[in-house]
């Protein structure tokens, strides 16, 4: 059946997870309490701006869309939706949090015990860059992904790890904790973003150009049904299996597994280019403004020094 809307057979809870919705609402409420009511409890605290609040809200809506809406079920049915989920969560939502969360909250968070040591890794920017792209690539090795998708606790833990590493990877570029003079220069930030894209390309290439579909959790009926337990209540899934309604992803689409896999690799690469394009534009114009600001400051100082020298000269004429 080439009808993805038939995922409604899994029920409301599986399609629109109220548990994840509650989590996102809780995080949003805590955010507004911290930034609009309790901000005075933090050093340098201030109310969040409308732009920050809107950005954080967008990040939370996207997070629920990726993990609480039918997109999550579809990510276990079709590899293309899995890669869509990966791109949005790790390459868009993670950096958005640097724009949505005020600097004083980031400072407090980064200096908590344990997190201080974790974010200290970003003092050597190549380390978090290699860590994220390396572990992301390992995660998408067929033997690793197929195993993790059938182990709910490990799968969840690995996704949390990847998200934390994504935050760490973007820390050298977008953090508001370190003073500007300790940041990488504008040109190095641009090269850093290019580096992320370059190191993610081999994983996308292997997925796109593989001669066959390589993930059993998207091709083998038993492995696929086991992986579906990550997002569908066991009682619902057992009932559907008992009635003989589903046996694999072919029930939902006529796309071949290889075509679905190739589409997933292309989606990841295209979305990566789009997201990084916006980041590069933001960094370039910020770098340009900073350079112009420095030029203006140098000019102002030169004029001021010339004026003082002229006044001094006039005193001794």
UniProtKB/TrEMBL annotation:
Topology of the protein relative to the lipid bilayer: Multi-pass membrane protein
Chief place of localization: membrane
Keywords, ordered alphabetically: Cell membrane, Membrane, Transmembrane, Transmembrane helix
Protein name: Cytochrome c oxidase assembly factor CtaG
Location in or out of the cell: Cell membrane
Coiled coil: none
Transmembrane segments: 16-34, 55-79, 85-106, 126-145, 157-174, 186-210, 266-285
InterPro entries for this protein: Caa3-assmbl_CtaG (IPR014108), Caa3_assmbl_CtaG-rel (IPR019108)
